[in-house]
Structures
1.
Amino acid sequence: MIIRKAEKKDMEELLKLYARARAFMKETGNPNQWKDSYPQPEVIEKGIQEGKAYVALAEGLEESGEEGSVQKGEILGTFYFAIEEDPSYQRIEGGSWLNAQPYGVIHRVASSGRGKGFSAACFAWAAQQCLKAGCGNLRIDTHEDNRVMQHVLEKNGFSYCGRIYLADGSPRLAYQKVLG
């Protein structure tokens, strides 16, 4: 997979990816994390404008996923990544972060369901960006009903650290991966 910054021209495809992700979450027992409208178009646009929204593209025809073969250049997924402090991560309950060192954050991960290994590629790419910047940690959070993402995170070396709360007070399970 090739990962690049999302561009304004990708907006229609990103909206489809997030709609698919919301439907998938509902089908797998997680109807409340993104409900029917998150992320809103303006949230996605802001990520693009700030250079923090990314897409993963298929490198060739040989990749295949749940829904058959994919075309070279097809968008297989999207995510938000930045090396920044997340205000929601300041307070953690029922555990603690693995360390207090700088970290990269990953948010709004959504896959097309086509092409294998999107999440692993996303996490590996983010880890490389962190290490290049001298940052040795990745953090991410998910809803307690998002069992699929919890499994994916644990499979990719993330450790459960405790519970954090979003700005609106919604609880999330917090994960961290120490790199290096």
2.
Amino acid sequence: MLKVNLKRERVLPFSFPMQEYKKVDANRNIVLIDDNLVDLVITEKVIKKFKVNSIKKFSDPQTALSFFKLNKSTWESNKKDQPDIVFIDINMPNMNGFDLLKSLKDCDVFKQGEIKIFLLSSSNNIADVNMSKQCVLCSGYIIKPLTYSKMNLILNVNNPNKYIIKI
């Protein structure tokens, strides 16, 4: 079992190349799901520094799940409108981030590896990190806040193979 010291490391890879990352134009569709409106605004501001097609925000995971289910058939025929990256908070009322991931998998909205789905949480609990590694749809675990450096890293790593970012 891999032991990770969250307090000492700035970036903790689970197999991705360590290299210099430069700003890229991210012509992508982003979805943010977080019940904390301040976190939504901060995350949106960081993402807007990059060229993106759209940013959809949800403060309720049930509403986000309905949005995904409703648009599933549209995205199957037109991939350009499908989200490229989804950020999901873990600790939300009624349905947490892990429950949302399970629901997305159960209703077959996204196929594994089709889009990048990141859990974005203020928790640095190793149990949460390990649980995220078990989620088939989860691309990685990011400790809040999302920063310019973290977003740049996400956009530059093509196959992250489950990683945690703390910068």
3.
Amino acid sequence: MKFSTFKRMTAMFLVNHILCGTFAFERKRKLLNAVGYQIGEGTKIVGPLYCTGMLHIGRNCWIGRNFTVHGNGSVEIGDACDIAPEVAFLTGGHSIGTAVRRAGAGQTYQIRVGSGCWIGARATIIGNRTIGSGVMITACACVTDDLEDNIMAGGVPTRKLKDLD
């Protein structure tokens, strides 16, 4: 096992088991930065956290329990965002294959979340998506399209519910 792999596994164990909860935010942030994630000043991560891709979180964010990034893509979250518990970002998928095997070639996605967003509990963001600044996504929503700035969106799949000031 490579030393970098061991270092990442150790940091994730500490964040997800020993330091999990609403305390030691600065220690968790420093540990995650030390193993290659980019977590901004003042960002608070509750944990556990599961991430197989690249992760960049801006300053002064709140990341709730069971934050997940599945796939080898990347997630970029702006400043002052609030991410509720059990939010999932799906940064990998497949093209549609033949009848022999419908899951075709693998694909990698980028997801961008603008500053000032609030993403409700158990929301899922799928594929190459850009979520504008100041967006509120309701709980249990499934984001399958880009979202413009300053709107409330919800549903499966999400749709614009109303404009926000």
4.
Amino acid sequence: ALENPTGLAVTADGRWLVTGENVLLILDASGRELARRELGGTPDCVASGPDGKIYLGMRRNIEVRDAEGLSPSLWPDLGERAWISALAVDENNVYAADSGNRALLRLDPAGNVVGRIGQRDPERGIPGLILPSPHMRVMFDAMGGLWVTNTGRHGFEQYRPDGTLVSSWYKASMGLDGFCGCCNPSAAAFRSDGSVVTAEKGIVRVKVHAPDSSLVGVVAAPESLGAVLNP
């Protein structure tokens, strides 16, 4: 009973947060509904902080709620072009993937923007984010490293909180081990062993890549996902 699912996150205590059309669901690990919270809009993404707070990306704003999905607080508007497509939260920062402005925003716990990461800067060796559509993702690896997807370059970039580029890997290829189309990988998440799981649109599939970026294998192909492919 959820229209248009848009976001998924797992809390530190193992609960699932799922967002959809004007709704936040809190589920246990078996999928049993623990709470359903009506929202004033449809989030594009959701994240859970180390303190249990829930963060919702509401296109131009970030809405913060307590661990039960109550007591909403809306942070300042991020601008007309902003499109928050993913969130990641650690003890000191909230990172918001702003697909509209092609930047990773670093915000303090009060919602103030204190840094912009990933924008083109030749002097610092930063190539710049190419984002043909709002599928930019931000995530932490098992060691707490900060990563973003650069979908137009078909890969990943790792940054320090101050915006310094640490490393990157790109796999632009029609082959199974790479990414193609306008904007892939469209979603990604790190596992505890350092491998990364990617999802693609167009060629709809889910894959696992080893920490050295080599392909481990395909988890789900289009037929197992029930995907309808474009001709």
